[in-house]
């Protein structure tokens, strides 16, 4: 993915939300996008997903300029309760986009089973979303995204609505699906520790009009581990670095 000089304004706001945002994401990379509250992180993600046409600049996915939702891209939203269909069983929810894309029934079944197994919900196919915990429902939403076999997965505050332990589990799940399926993942988060834990690189947006204030490379070893990675002195240093860039008082 290549983002070049992206800018966007909403009618009625005194200044643009995004201004000349540029960065690239390589195959298999995990990037997180952080920045001050209300700075335009979700707006940026919507532009990357082709859900919002930017005022200027360009997003290229797999070599093609984005004009509408591109092939090979899936998105997971924060609010799983609104993104899953409560009247459909879990299996139906996961295969929904495959039906819409005209994927044959046998392949739909195989991909649904594989995606649910990848998120640890191989036994939940016949349940309804409301019979599952919040964290399990977000796993279903992730499985639905995986079933499309995306090359790029966008996640907007995906773990903000679950408890701390579930959040840690879902962070590890995200890293494991990247390792297993090899896709590029971009995650918007408010949580600085989460951004460092998940990332190969953290994109820090400035205050509005938001541009890329800094890109922090996270060279922590893989596989990451919730206890050892987070207690690594380099982790502590990196989180302080990202926090300082968000506050705008880091020496560049
Ligand atoms: N559809 C819209 N119409 C008008 N203004 C909007 C719209 N969507 C967002 N905004 C405004 O654009 C700015 C950026 O919003 P956005 O949600 O992209 O920021 P964010 O960084 O994701 O926010 P948060 O940190 O609260 O999650 C805010 O001032 C918001 O009020």
Automatic annotation (TrEMBL):
Domain (ABC transporter) ranges: 1-232
GO molecular function ontology, one term from the record: ATP hydrolysis activity
Name of this chain's protein: ABC transporter ATP-binding protein
Keywords linked to the UniProt accession: ATP-binding, Nucleotide-binding, Transport
This protein's record includes keyword DNA-binding: no
Superkingdom of origin organism: Bacteria
Keyword Nucleotide-binding: yes
A Pfam family: ABC_tran
InterPro entries: AAA+_ATPase, ABC_transporter-like_ATP-bd, ABC_transporter-like_CS, ABC_transporter_ATP-bind, P-loop_NTPase
């Amino acid at each position: 993915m290549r983002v070049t000089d992206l800018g966007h304004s909403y009618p009625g706001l005194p200044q643009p939300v995004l201004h000349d945002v540029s960065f690239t994401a390589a195959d298999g990379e995990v990037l997180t996008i952080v920045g001050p509250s209300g700075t335009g992180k979700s707006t940026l993600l919507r532009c990357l997903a082709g859900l919002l046409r930017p005022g200027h600049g360009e997003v290229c996915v797999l070599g093609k300029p984005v004009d509408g939702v591109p092939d090979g891209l899936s998105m997971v939203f924060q609010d799983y309760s609104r993104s899953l269909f409560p009247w459909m069983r879990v299996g139906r929810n996961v295969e929904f986009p495959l039906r819409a894309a005209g994927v044959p029934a046998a392949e739909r079944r195989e991909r649904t089973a594989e995606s649910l197994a990848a998120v640890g919900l191989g036994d939940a196919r016949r349940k309804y979303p409301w019979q599952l915990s919040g964290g399990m429902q977000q796993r279903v939403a992730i499985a639905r995204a995986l079933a499309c076999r995306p090359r790029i997965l966008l996640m907007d505050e995906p773990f903000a609505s679950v408890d701390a332990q579930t959040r840690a589990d879902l962070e590890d799940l995200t890293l494991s699906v990247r390792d297993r399926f090899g896709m590029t993942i971009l995650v918007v988060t408010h949580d600085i520790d989460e951004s460092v834990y998940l990332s190969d690189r953290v994109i820090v947006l400035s205050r509005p009009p938001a541009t890329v204030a800094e890109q922090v490379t996270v060279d922590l070893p893989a596989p990451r581990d919730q206890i050892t990675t987070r207690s690594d002195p380099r982790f502590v240093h990196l989180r302080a670095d990202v926090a300082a860039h968000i506050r705008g008082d880091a020496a560049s």
